[in-house]
Protein backbone atom coordinates (compact mmCIF):
# COMPACT_ATOMS: atom_id res chain seq x y z
CA UNK A 1 0.00 0.00 0.00
CA UNK A 2 1.22 3.52 -0.74
CA UNK A 3 0.37 6.61 1.33
CA UNK A 4 1.61 9.93 -0.05
CA UNK A 5 2.33 13.10 1.91
CA UNK A 6 3.10 16.22 -0.12
CA UNK A 7 3.39 19.90 0.67
CA UNK A 8 5.64 22.97 0.70
CA UNK A 9 8.99 23.45 2.49
CA UNK A 10 9.15 23.39 6.27
CA UNK A 11 5.61 22.11 6.78
CA UNK A 12 6.77 19.09 8.83
CA UNK A 13 6.09 16.38 6.24
CA UNK A 14 9.27 14.46 7.10
CA UNK A 15 8.61 14.35 10.83
CA UNK A 16 5.00 13.28 10.34
CA UNK A 17 5.85 10.72 7.63
CA UNK A 18 8.50 9.11 9.85
CA UNK A 19 6.13 8.80 12.82
CA UNK A 20 3.33 7.33 10.71
CA UNK A 21 5.63 4.92 8.89
CA UNK A 22 6.93 3.57 12.23
CA UNK A 23 3.49 3.18 13.72
CA UNK A 24 2.08 1.39 10.65
CA UNK A 25 5.26 -0.65 10.04
CA UNK A 26 5.65 0.92 6.58
CA UNK A 27 8.88 1.98 4.91
CA UNK A 28 9.51 5.70 4.39
CA UNK A 29 10.61 7.35 1.15
CA UNK A 30 12.19 10.80 1.57
CA UNK A 31 12.07 11.96 -2.06
CA UNK A 32 13.43 15.42 -1.13
CA UNK A 33 16.64 13.76 0.09
CA UNK A 34 17.01 12.27 -3.40
CA UNK A 35 16.76 15.70 -5.07
CA UNK A 36 19.24 17.03 -2.51
CA UNK A 37 21.72 14.17 -3.09
CA UNK A 38 21.43 14.62 -6.85
CA UNK A 39 22.09 18.38 -6.55
CA UNK A 40 25.15 17.70 -4.39
CA UNK A 41 26.42 15.11 -6.89
CA UNK A 42 25.92 17.36 -9.93
CA UNK A 43 27.49 20.29 -8.12
CA UNK A 44 30.56 18.23 -7.17
CA UNK A 45 30.84 17.23 -10.83
CA UNK A 46 30.61 20.87 -11.93
CA UNK A 47 27.39 20.37 -13.89
CA UNK A 48 24.70 23.06 -13.82
CA UNK A 49 20.95 22.54 -13.61
CA UNK A 50 20.28 23.60 -17.20
CA UNK A 51 22.96 21.42 -18.83
CA UNK A 52 20.67 18.46 -19.62
CA UNK A 53 23.18 16.70 -21.90
CA UNK A 54 25.90 16.54 -19.26
CA UNK A 55 23.37 15.78 -16.56
CA UNK A 56 22.15 12.73 -18.50
CA UNK A 57 25.74 11.47 -18.71
CA UNK A 58 26.75 11.92 -15.09
CA UNK A 59 23.45 10.71 -13.64
CA UNK A 60 24.16 7.21 -14.98
CA UNK A 61 26.67 7.00 -12.11
CA UNK A 62 24.29 8.30 -9.46
CA UNK A 63 23.27 5.75 -6.82
CA UNK A 64 21.20 6.83 -3.86
CA UNK A 65 20.52 4.51 -0.98
CA UNK A 66 18.74 4.86 2.34
CA UNK A 67 20.04 2.73 5.17
CA UNK A 68 18.88 2.39 8.78
CA UNK A 69 21.46 2.47 11.51
CA UNK A 70 21.58 3.29 15.22
CA UNK A 71 21.53 7.04 14.51
CA UNK A 72 18.42 6.71 12.37
CA UNK A 73 18.11 6.78 8.60
CA UNK A 74 21.29 7.62 6.66
CA UNK A 75 21.49 8.78 3.03
CA UNK A 76 24.26 7.32 0.89
CA UNK A 77 25.40 8.96 -2.33
CA UNK A 78 27.27 6.18 -4.08
CA UNK A 79 29.43 5.06 -1.09
CA UNK A 80 29.51 8.38 0.79
CA UNK A 81 27.29 9.17 3.74
CA UNK A 82 25.81 12.60 2.86
CA UNK A 83 23.02 12.68 5.48
CA UNK A 84 24.12 16.00 7.00
CA UNK A 85 25.80 17.50 3.89
CA UNK A 86 22.51 17.56 1.97
CA UNK A 87 20.66 19.57 4.67
CA UNK A 88 22.44 22.91 4.19
CA UNK A 89 20.63 25.96 2.84
CA UNK A 90 22.90 26.00 -0.19
CA UNK A 91 21.82 22.48 -1.12
CA UNK A 92 18.13 23.31 -0.47
CA UNK A 93 18.30 26.07 -3.07
CA UNK A 94 20.32 23.96 -5.51
CA UNK A 95 17.94 21.00 -5.12
CA UNK A 96 15.03 23.19 -6.11
CA UNK A 97 16.86 24.39 -9.24
CA UNK A 98 17.79 20.86 -10.35
CA UNK A 99 14.24 19.71 -9.53
CA UNK A 100 12.89 21.98 -12.27
CA UNK A 101 14.81 20.01 -14.92
CA UNK A 102 12.57 17.44 -16.61
CA UNK A 103 15.42 14.94 -17.22
CA UNK A 104 16.25 15.00 -13.51
CA UNK A 105 12.61 14.39 -12.59
CA UNK A 106 12.27 11.47 -15.01
CA UNK A 107 15.38 9.77 -13.61
CA UNK A 108 14.36 10.23 -9.98
CA UNK A 109 10.73 9.27 -10.69
CA UNK A 110 11.88 5.92 -12.07
CA UNK A 111 14.21 5.36 -9.10
CA UNK A 112 11.36 6.16 -6.69
CA UNK A 113 8.98 3.74 -8.39
CA UNK A 114 11.62 0.99 -8.36
CA UNK A 115 12.36 1.53 -4.66
CA UNK A 116 8.73 1.24 -3.65
CA UNK A 117 7.62 -1.55 -5.95
CA UNK A 118 5.29 -4.05 -4.21
CA UNK A 119 6.06 -2.74 -0.71
CA UNK A 120 4.15 -0.74 1.93
CA UNK A 121 5.49 2.81 1.82
CA UNK A 122 4.85 6.34 3.03
CA UNK A 123 6.15 8.49 0.16
CA UNK A 124 6.86 12.11 1.07
CA UNK A 125 7.70 15.06 -1.20
CA UNK A 126 6.19 17.49 -3.67
CA UNK A 127 4.77 15.29 -6.45
CA UNK A 128 4.21 11.92 -4.79
CA UNK A 129 0.40 11.91 -4.99
CA UNK A 130 0.17 13.84 -8.23
CA UNK A 131 2.79 12.52 -10.67
CA UNK A 132 4.85 9.69 -9.16
CA UNK A 133 2.18 7.57 -7.45
CA UNK A 134 -1.14 8.84 -8.83
CA UNK A 135 -2.82 5.55 -7.81
CA UNK A 136 -1.73 5.72 -4.16
CA UNK A 137 -4.43 4.49 -1.75
CA UNK A 138 -4.24 7.53 0.55
CA UNK A 139 -3.02 11.02 -0.28
CA UNK A 140 -2.39 13.90 2.08
CA UNK A 141 -1.29 17.48 1.39
CA UNK A 142 0.05 19.40 4.39
CA UNK A 143 0.15 23.19 4.43
CA UNK A 144 0.87 25.94 6.98
CA UNK A 145 1.47 29.70 7.16
CA UNK A 146 4.89 30.80 5.89
CA UNK A 147 5.95 32.27 9.26
CA UNK A 148 5.16 29.04 11.07
CA UNK A 149 6.97 26.95 8.46
CA UNK A 150 10.02 29.22 8.74
CA UNK A 151 10.07 28.71 12.51
CA UNK A 152 9.82 24.92 12.11
CA UNK A 153 12.59 24.87 9.50
CA UNK A 154 14.86 27.12 11.63
CA UNK A 155 14.39 24.75 14.59
CA UNK A 156 15.21 21.80 12.35
CA UNK A 157 18.41 23.46 11.05
CA UNK A 158 19.48 24.05 14.64
CA UNK A 159 18.72 20.46 15.61
CA UNK A 160 20.39 18.76 12.63
CA UNK A 161 23.28 21.10 11.79
CA UNK A 162 23.61 23.18 14.95
CA UNK A 163 23.10 26.32 12.84
CA UNK A 164 21.28 29.36 14.26
CA UNK A 165 19.41 31.09 11.44
CA UNK A 166 17.32 34.21 11.49
CA UNK A 167 13.69 33.19 10.88
CA UNK A 168 13.14 36.02 8.38
CA UNK A 169 16.00 34.74 6.23
CA UNK A 170 14.64 31.22 6.47
CA UNK A 171 11.21 32.53 5.42
CA UNK A 172 12.77 34.16 2.35
CA UNK A 173 14.64 30.97 1.42
CA UNK A 174 11.59 28.72 1.70
CA UNK A 175 9.26 31.13 -0.03
CA UNK A 176 11.67 31.40 -3.01
CA UNK A 177 11.85 27.62 -3.12
CA UNK A 178 8.04 27.23 -2.91
CA UNK A 179 7.67 29.71 -5.72
CA UNK A 180 10.07 27.76 -7.94
CA UNK A 181 8.48 24.42 -6.97
CA UNK A 182 4.93 25.66 -7.67
CA UNK A 183 5.61 27.44 -10.95
CA UNK A 184 8.00 25.06 -12.74
CA UNK A 185 6.68 23.39 -15.88
CA UNK A 186 7.65 19.85 -14.92
CA UNK A 187 5.46 18.34 -12.18
CA UNK A 188 4.79 21.53 -10.20
CA UNK A 189 3.78 21.35 -6.55
CA UNK A 190 0.01 21.33 -6.03
CA UNK A 191 -2.40 19.12 -4.10
CA UNK A 192 -3.73 16.05 -5.92
CA UNK A 193 -7.44 16.37 -6.70
CA UNK A 194 -8.11 13.42 -4.37
CA UNK A 195 -5.76 14.48 -1.53
CA UNK A 196 -6.94 15.29 1.99
CA UNK A 197 -5.62 18.83 2.63
CA UNK A 198 -4.58 19.59 6.21
CA UNK A 199 -3.67 23.10 7.38
CA UNK A 200 -1.22 22.33 10.19
CA UNK A 201 -0.60 25.98 11.19
CA UNK A 202 -2.28 25.60 14.56
CA UNK A 203 -1.82 21.88 15.06
CA UNK A 204 0.76 19.92 17.06
CA UNK A 205 2.64 17.03 15.49
CA UNK A 206 0.50 14.57 17.48
CA UNK A 207 -2.70 16.20 16.23
CA UNK A 208 -1.60 15.94 12.58
CA UNK A 209 -0.60 12.30 13.06
CA UNK A 210 -3.95 11.56 14.68
CA UNK A 211 -5.85 13.30 11.87
CA UNK A 212 -4.02 11.26 9.21
CA UNK A 213 -4.52 8.00 11.09
CA UNK A 214 -8.21 8.75 11.57
CA UNK A 215 -8.66 9.28 7.83
CA UNK A 216 -6.91 5.96 7.11
CA UNK A 217 -8.82 4.05 9.83
CA UNK A 218 -12.20 5.37 8.71
CA UNK A 219 -11.75 4.79 4.99
O1 LIG B 1 11.58 18.17 0.89
P1 LIG B 1 12.91 18.88 0.73
O2 LIG B 1 12.92 20.25 1.31
O3 LIG B 1 14.04 18.04 1.22
O4 LIG B 1 13.09 19.02 -0.86
C1 LIG B 1 14.13 19.78 -1.42
C2 LIG B 1 13.71 20.24 -2.81
O5 LIG B 1 13.61 19.10 -3.67
C3 LIG B 1 12.35 20.92 -2.90
O6 LIG B 1 12.40 22.31 -2.67
C4 LIG B 1 11.92 20.61 -4.33
O7 LIG B 1 12.45 21.54 -5.24
C5 LIG B 1 12.56 19.27 -4.61
N1 LIG B 1 11.61 18.16 -4.53
C6 LIG B 1 10.80 17.94 -5.62
N2 LIG B 1 9.97 16.86 -5.63
C7 LIG B 1 9.93 16.02 -4.59
C8 LIG B 1 10.72 16.27 -3.44
C9 LIG B 1 11.55 17.37 -3.44
O8 LIG B 1 10.81 18.69 -6.57
N3 LIG B 1 9.11 14.97 -4.63
Brief overview:
The chain is of the alpha/beta class. Helix content is 50%, strand content 17%.
N- and C-termini, Cα separation:
14 Å
How many individual domains?
A: 1
How much of the sequence lies in strands comes to 15-25%
Main sheet specs:
5 strands, parallel
Bound molecules: cytidine-5'-monophosphate
CATH fold topology = Rossmann fold
Question: Which stretches of 5+ consecutive residues score pLDDT under 50?
Answer: none
The second-level CATH architecture is 3-Layer(aba) Sandwich
Write up this protein.
The protein has 219 residues and is of the alpha/beta class. The protein is 50% helix and 17% strand. It contains nine helices and eight strands. It is globular, with a radius of gyration of 16 Å. It binds cytidine-5'-monophosphate. The site of cytidine-5'-monophosphate has 15 residues, from helix 2, helix 4 and helix 8.
Amino acid sequence: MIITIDGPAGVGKGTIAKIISKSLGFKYLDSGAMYRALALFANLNGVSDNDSDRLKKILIDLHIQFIDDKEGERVLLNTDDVTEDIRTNEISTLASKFAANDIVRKILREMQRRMIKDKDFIAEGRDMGTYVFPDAEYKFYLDADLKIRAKRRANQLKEILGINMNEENVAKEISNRDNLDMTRESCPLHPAADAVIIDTSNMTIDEVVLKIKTVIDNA
